[in-house]
Amino acid sequence: MTQDLMHIVEAHGQKQVLNFWNILDESEQEQLFRQLEELDFENLDSLIKEYVLQKPEMHIPEDLSPAPYYPLEPLDEKQQKLYQQAYATGEKLMRDGKVAALTVAGGQGTRLGFDGPKGTYPIAPISQKSLFQYFAESLRRASVKYGHDFTWYIMTSKLNNQPTQDFFEKNNYFGMAPENVIFFVQGTMPAFDYNGKLLLEEKHSLALAPDGHGGTLLALRRSGCLEKMKKDGVEYISYFQVDNPLVSIINPLFVGLHAKENAEMSALMLAKTGPFEKLGNFCVSKDRLMIIEYSDLPAEFAEQRNTDGSLKFIAGSPAIHVISRSFVEKLTAAGRLCLPWHRADKKIPYINSDGIKVTPEEPNGVKLESFIFDALPLASQTMILEADREEEFAPTKNKTGVDSVESCREMIIERDARRLERAGVKVPRRANGRPAVEIEISPLAVMDDEDCINYCRANGITEIVDNGKPVYLK
Ligand code: UTP
């Protein structure tokens, strides 16, 4: 350890991280040294003051109003024309190679409790395809349909990057050309105890955690991905989370409206099912779009209703965005992440001053994360488009219950059954309305209604027969 760094660590009141320095071997010293060297101690001091030593209070602006959005169905002929034109624009941008897909997959997936990166979870109800395979095959289908090999950017974290890349390697990139699958690693933030002291996870290692999906922006720059996008002529990023297999990986209408509106960042929205549904709320203050988390939106806003009884703050966020490359370039030009931090009180295992590993039963410290949606108020122009929840959103957060593996699989079956019905196929249904058989359509064959019609016609499918066996169409 250079004396310089040692002095910096001490000067910033963090010398406890060097408690075991003298008993570490050379490679362990090297590891701790590298981690400390990467920290911006000046910046950490102010973060500790602002977010760790106190709980930052959420200030709700007085002028808060619901955000305007384009509805699912066009309201009139003029809007219908706009949607048609936007769809065509989006398709052209896709054909011309101006759009890339980006999945954020750096989270720790603690709620799912699965041993491995979440994207490797076998989510498909019949084929048991993993989330990554499901997206890869959707992209392959889109590449055929639009005559352009889409590039897929996947953000991982230091904790899951290697296993994620190994998974793709082992599975031959699910048929994608390896050069079209680009992994980039997000940044980390150290964890603190309640006194603002950095915690050690091991004697030779700080307790570090991924810096939140907001870290995408800076990671794109630092990894050279922004440069690559520019070189490849990519102007728009179709952003989605790794846990939502229903998402249309690139949505022509969404991309087209974003481009037509000259938006820097756009968002899909879902109509909330109730005032307190656990989705971020799209709101506007001082002409700036923002998302206020469900836990932060006071009841006097959440419960406001229109004269027809519908919720005023109806727009909830499924975390699906189109982001202009130029916007990411602008936001990260100074080489720093310009988003606010969010504090999470967590149980953080640590090494105590006696060198003993402690696994706390109660939260003992703070992790800081940044959120991608905090970039919305920084955009000069934004656009929100309503999406059909049943068609676009099946988050896999938990093992069972709400937003779980179970509910996600049911939604895939239901979505595929509806697609078949819209293509004129008879699907057997139970008295409760659920499909009588498990149905799954491979995303390699069908990515939208048009595909489904053509697929059923080409394969002579007019009826799904209930013979007690699952029906897998590929
Ligand atoms: P979640 O907020 O659901 O977090 O992430 P998570 O880590 O996956 O799961 P829990 O909360 O520990 O159970 C939403 C999306 O953002 C990504 C996740 O991989 C997921 O796609 N994410 C989250 C990142 O890429 N990096 C992060 O630091 C956090």
Key words describing this protein structure:
Spore Coat Polysaccharide Biosynthesis Protein SpsA, Chain A; 14 helices; 22 strands; alpha+beta
Q: What would you note in describing this structure?
A:
The protein is of the alpha+beta class and 474 residues long. It is built from 14 helices and 22 strands. It has two domains: 60-396, Spore Coat Polysaccharide Biosynthesis Protein SpsA, Chain A (Alpha-Beta Complex), CATH 3.90.550.10; 398-474, no CATH class. Helices cover 31% and strands 18% of the residues. The strands form six sheets. Strands 1, 2, 3, 4, 10, 11, 12, 13, 14, 15 and 20 form an eleven-stranded mixed beta sheet that branches. A three-stranded antiparallel beta sheet has the order 6-19-16, covered by helices on one side. It has a two-stranded antiparallel sheet with strand order 5-9. A hairpin with a 2-residue loop joins strand 12 and strand 13. The protein is globular and about 75 Å long. 41% of the residues are buried. Residues 104-111, 118, 155, 186, 210-213, 215, 241-243, 369, 397 line the site of uridine 5'-triphosphate.
